[in-house]
Design a protein that fits this description.
With 306 residues, this protein is an alpha/beta fold. The chain is 51% helix and 13% strand. The chain has twelve helices and ten strands. The strands form two sheets. An eight-stranded mixed sheet has the order 5-4-6-3-7-8-9-10, with helices on both faces. Strands 1-2 form a two-stranded antiparallel ribbon. It is elongated. The relative contact order is 0.19.
Amino acid sequence: MGWFDRLKAGLGKTSVRITGGIGNVFTGKRRLDADTLEKLEEVLITADMGVATAAKITAALAKTRFDQEITNDEVRQTFAADITAILEPVARPLAVRSDLSPHVILMCGVNGSGKTTTIGKLAKQFTDQGKSVMLAAGDTFRAAAIEQLQVWGQRTGAPVVARAIGSDAAGLAYDAMEQARAAKVDVLLIDTAGRLQNKAHLMEELVKIVRVIKKVDPDAPHDVVLVLDATVGQNAHTQVETFNAAVNLTGLVMTKLDGTAKGGVVVALADRFQLPVLAIGVGEGVDDLRPFSARDFACNLLGLDA
C-alpha cells in the first residue's frame, strides 16, 4: 500500500464523519442558504475542526455560492481547496541542518502521546538517509521509556545516552550534548518525560532542560517538537498553548490519526497557531510516520482523490 492509500485508510474515521455528514445535508443539488451553511459548519465541528475554523471555511463557501444551487461534490471540492490553503503554510518536513554538529531536536509531549516511538521512527528515517544519530533517554521517570529508546538504538545503530531511573533529566541532556559534540554526530534526539501541561513543576523541569542545553550550545535546541495524540481532539489546543509558552515550539508531530474521527483538529491547530506540522502518524509501522502534505491530507479528509 502506497503512502496516499495508507493516509486514506488512517484518516478513514475522520473522513467518514465529514463526508457522511455532508452527505446527510445533501441528497442531490440544494440551494446554499443559512440553514444549510449552519448544518455544514456543525459537520466540520464534529470532526474537531473547531468553531472558528469551521466558521471560516463555511464563510468562504458562502462568499462564492450563497443562494446558489450546489452539490455534495462541489462542497467537498471547495472545502478541500480551502483546507489545503490553511495547511500549506505549515506543511514543513523536519529538515536536519548539515551545518550543525549536532542538530539538536528536543521532543516533548504528554504521557501516551507516542513521543518515544516517534523518536525511534525519526532515528530510523535519519539513519536510512545516511545521517549519524544519537539518542538521549531524558524520560528518567519511566524505565519502560529508557528501555524502549535502547531498543530503537539497537535497531538503528544509534548510541543511547541513559542514566538510572530518577536521575536528573537536565544533567543527562547536558552529558548527551557533550557526547554528541565529541562524536560529531549529525542529529541528537532528546526524549523528555511525558508531562501533563497543568503540572507546573514538570513544565519547569522542561524549561531547565532547555536552559542547560544552551550552556553547551546557545543556539540549541534547534528544534523543539511537540508530539500530539490526535485522539485528544480539542484538548490539543491547551497542550500547544502551554508547551509553546514554556519552550517556544518549532513544530508539531500528530500521531494516532488512524485511531480517531477527530483528525480535523490538525486543521484547527494550523489555523490558530501557524506552527509547522512536521510529520503525521497513521499507524505503528516505521513507515507510517511521514512528512505532512497539505493537499493529500485535505483530499483524504473530504474523501477525494489527490
